[in-house]
Each structure stands twice: as structure tokens, then as C-alpha cells.
Write a structure and sequence with these properties.
By secondary structure, the chain is α/β, with parallel strands linked by helices. The chain has seven helices and eleven strands. It has helices at residues 43-50, 91-102, 107-115, 131-143, 161-173, 188-192, 218-228; strands spanning 3-14, 17-23, 26-28, 32-36, 58-63, 66-67, 76-79, 149-153, 180-185, 197-202, 205-211. The termini are far apart.
Length: 234
């Protein structure tokens, strides 16, 4: 099996606190990988290492079967924490800033707006967008450079049920376009409906990693794994 990205015994510590410990992640090419875990489990820290936002304390990141380098960021799109938007600019203006930065053609702006269904926002400033529209604009920015790997950290935070449904269908369409997706969440039902593979992280460690089975009770599995990890989860 070919992996888009994997890690080998990845660790991240801040002074005496271990945030990630010996994580060996395996993300198959053209799949949706759901990274599950309670709040504070270390999901965001792991994703920040994969996107070059922070450096590992030790361990390796392998991208397309080679040791990860900062040049690989040209093929990686991400939405971690808040969408990186200028609220005083329109959707198109937000994307224009990035096309200039990445030296991309303007035609790419309309392409990504169509993908995330934001073509009709006109002169409306991004600051006036709903939470769902802001999230979709954040994904449009992440898609602008035609990434091969898309990393989304809790992308449905603050979305209403319609927004979650729209985003779910959008994410499910990406592997057919040659985009591998890692999506982190603490909402089991959200990941259960879209993921091909599941990883469960608790107390900074990866305790479970498998292909999704149709007959599996994800909630039961999750609670068993988290309990084994010694995490109190309510």
C-alpha cells in the first residue's frame, strides 16, 4: 500500500510536558483519514507538525515515501484552528492575495470558489459571512495551490447541521480528485460517515489505527480505546 504521509515515532515535548509520544501514523494515498480523540488529546499538535507550523522534538515525517521537507508544503493545504481570512476583504480578494503570494493564475480563484460553493458572494466582506461560509472560504484557501494532501483540524466547529452536511459531501469528493484528506475531530458521527481509515489518539499517543469496518460500533470502540489510555471522557 502506498502512503501519502506517515510518521515514525514522532514526539513533541514542551519542557517537561509530552504532548505527542511515539506516534506512527499511516495515511494511505487518496483516502480520508479520520483522527479522533478527546479535546486536549494532542491532535492539533500532531497536525501542526505535519504542516510545518511546529517542529517535532524527535521522530520522522515521511511524505510520499521520502523524508518530509519544507518544499513539500507546496503540495499540502491545511485549515487548522481559525480560517486565515481577512475580514475586510471579499472572498475573491482573500483568494487574490494568496494567488499573488503563490504566483498562481487568477483562474484558480473561480475554480476553488466553485468547489466550495461560494461563487455568488459578490462584494460581501468575509467578516459578514456565516461561520459555515468562513469555514468554506478557509478550505478554498487551502485548496488554492492544488494540494495533494489536505489537513483539516475540527473543520465543522461552529457549523449548523446544514453546514456540516454540505462540508461532509465536499470532503467526500476530494479523494476522487486525487486529494488525500486528514480530518481531526472529537465528534464521532461526523468522522464515521466519511472516513476510510480511523486513528484514535488519547493522552498524546496513537492507540488505534485501522481501516473502517462497516459493522463496527465506533462509539463503543472509541470509549474502549480512550478508557484503555486512561482518559476520563464525558
Amino acid at each position: 500500500m502506498k502512503y501519502m504521509i506517515q510518521t515514525k515515532n514522532l514526539n513533541k515535548s514542551y519542557k517537561k510536558q509530552e504532548v505527542n509520544k511515539d506516534i506512527s501514523l499511516l495515511v494511505p494515498k487518496n483516502s480520508i483519514y479520520g483522527l479522533l480523540g478527546p479535546n486536549g488529546a494532542g491532535k492539533s499538535t500532531l497536525l501542526k507538525m505535519l504542516t510545518g507550523m511546529i517542529n517535532p522534538t524527535s521522530g520522522e515525517i515521511i511524505y510520499k515515501e521520502k523524508v518530509w521537507s519544507r518544499n513539500d508544503l507546496l503540495e499540502i493545504g491545511s485549515l487548522i484552528e481559525q480560517p486565515p481570512i481577512y475580514e475586510n476583504l471579499t472572498a475573491r480578494e482573500n483568494l487574490k492575495v494568496r494567488t499573488l503570494l503563490y504566483n498562481l493564475p487568477d483562474s484558480r480563484i473561480e475554480e476553488v470558489l466553485e468547489i466550495v460553493n461560494l461563487t455568488n458572494t459578490g462584494n460581501k466582506k468575509a467578516g459578514k459571512f456565516s461561520m459555515g461560509m468562513k469555514q468554506r472560504l478557509g478550505i478554498a484557501i487551502a485548496l488554492l495551490n492544488n494540494p495533494k494532501l489536505l489537513i483539516l483540524d475540527e473543520p465543522t466547529n461552529g457549523l449548523d447541521p446544514i453546514g456540516i452536511g454540505d462540508l461532509r459531501e465536499l470532503i467526500k469528493s476530494f479523494p476522487k480528485k486525487g486529494i488525500t484528506v486528514i480530518i481531526s475531530s472529537h465528534i464521532l458521527s461526523e468522522v464515521d460517515q466519511i472516513a476510510d481509515y480511523i486513528g484514535i489518539i488519547a493522552n498524546g499517543q496513537l492507540w488505534y489505527q485501522e481501516k473502517v469496518q462497516e459493522d463496527i460500533d465506533l462509539e463503543k470502540l472509541f470509549l474502549e480505546v480512550v478508557k484503555k489510555a486512561g482518559t476520563k471522557y464525558e
